[in-house]
Amino acid sequence: MAGVLSRPLDGKPLSSLEAHLAEHLQQVCASKAFESSATLKNLLIYLFQNRSEQVSEYAIAVGALYRKEDFDPQIDATVRVQISRLRRRLKDYYLSEGRSTNVRFTIPLGTHQLVLDQVSEDSLLLDDTTTSLFVKDRSEVLPPGASAQTRSLTRSANLVILILGCLVLALTFVCVWQYWQLRSQARTNSRGASAQLLPLWREFCANGKPARIVIPNPTFFTWTPANKPGLIARDVQVNSFADIDKSPGLSALRKQLGEPALSEFYAVSSDVIASLKLMHYMDAGGASITTNISSDASAELFEGDNVILIGTPGTLTPFQNQLDRLYFKFDPQARDLVNPHPIGTETAETRVIQESPSRSIYPGLVAFLPGSLKGSHVLILAGSETAGLVTYLTSTAGSQALQDARNRAGGAPFFEAAIVSEADGNTVLNSHMIAFRAFTSKSTQN
258 in a domain, yes or no? Predict the structure, then answer.
């Protein structure tokens, strides 16, 4: 690897900056975060060497991942998966071993381009945002023929992004504050005695694999017309930037305002609350768990871990292969829960009921499944009110009801359960199970 890193592409001697970057690249590749992945090392080195070029998926597949020349990126997602893994591995590195470095490699979402960032000393202390190493003004990276209006749009977009960034920081502060309040309350109530995890959670964690909560971001579309207020729009039926034409409303906005930008700064409030409740419960039981509010989530990225997926059927689109395995389904509007073959008093469809302006009844789905790698687990909490699902799963009554249903199903190791939750605003009033099925690999055919 040293020979590859020390050789300039054009045959000229390395400048001091290039030598510094090459040395940093070598440190990253030699780190614990990358030591077990030759594929990600090769990919990082390739992107570094071609950082000044717009490389295609095909070029990356053949040049960095050693795929055959008949590789077709339209039917093979290998490059996107590996880029996503590399992006997350770099984040992990700079949160641990590389925390004190003043140069950082990033891969912006939606691109395959390696970006080199410089971090100020103050930012290192705060672990805050980074500033570009080579670009003083983002307008400098526009194509030479870009108009003044385009540059003005870019500056407006930067202002919107700054404001959104401040909102995200504020939301993060509130969530962290709520979490520590919950921890403090738990310590006070338990007086130093850890609560024991309920059977389902002991089973989920028993394999010793890392446990992660994953909350995929919903997709927002942003328009920033010159000298006008910005607009952020979302259609709950559209959860991919490429699917904008599936929404008449978004398509109309695009015709009126031009091409939008992708904005993924937000998470569904119920899902954030559900995550905080679950982190509090696991922490009180002495179990370690991390949370990823992820805009680049994919099933492949978390394979091998114990993963808890929290979201609406729409935001969980990156994990559609998991949802497709299930017996219970959500309707096309992603609100009502469908039971294909009701048994006894079960209903074929459980609808959302609006009891008052703030009070509603929501159907939800809990699925405990085997993971993609042997021994790993996947727990899906899907619906419009996921905080109610967490409340149910961490209650003694809910745990006992699930265990009784599993026993009646012959001790089913994996299962699906339809849960109904009543909520007033963000306050969960009650939850109960209305249907249960043992999970099998043929569940989708039942």
Answer: no
Alpha carbon 192 to its chain centroid, in Å, reads 34
Residues in the chain: 446
Contacts of 345 (CB under 8 A, 6+ apart): none
Do 267 and 215 form a contact (C-beta atoms < 8 A)? yes
- Nearest Cα neighbor of 299 from 178, 220, 427, 212 is 212
Q: Tell me which of 107, 135, 163 is where a domain ends.
A: 135
Stated pTM of the model: 0.57
User: What separation in angstroms does the CA of 230 have from each of 118, 139, 142, 335?
Assistant: 29, 18, 20, 30
Instruction: Give the integer Cα–Cα distance in Å for 6 and 19.
Output: 8
Largest Cα–Cα distance in the chain?
Answer: 79
First to last CA, the chain: 53
- Determine the structural domain holding residue 91 and report its residue range: 2-135
Domain boundary among 105, 135, 165: 135
Sign of the CA dihedral running 232, 235, 236, 237: negative
Domains in the chain: how many in total? Answer: 2
Strands 349-350 and 337-338: antiparallel
64-122 per-position pLDDT tens digit: 988 888 888 877 778 887 888 898 889 888 888 888 888 889 888 778 889 887 765 54
C-alpha span between 150 and 253 (Å, rounded) = 18
What are the structure tokens assigned to 49, written together? 């060497």
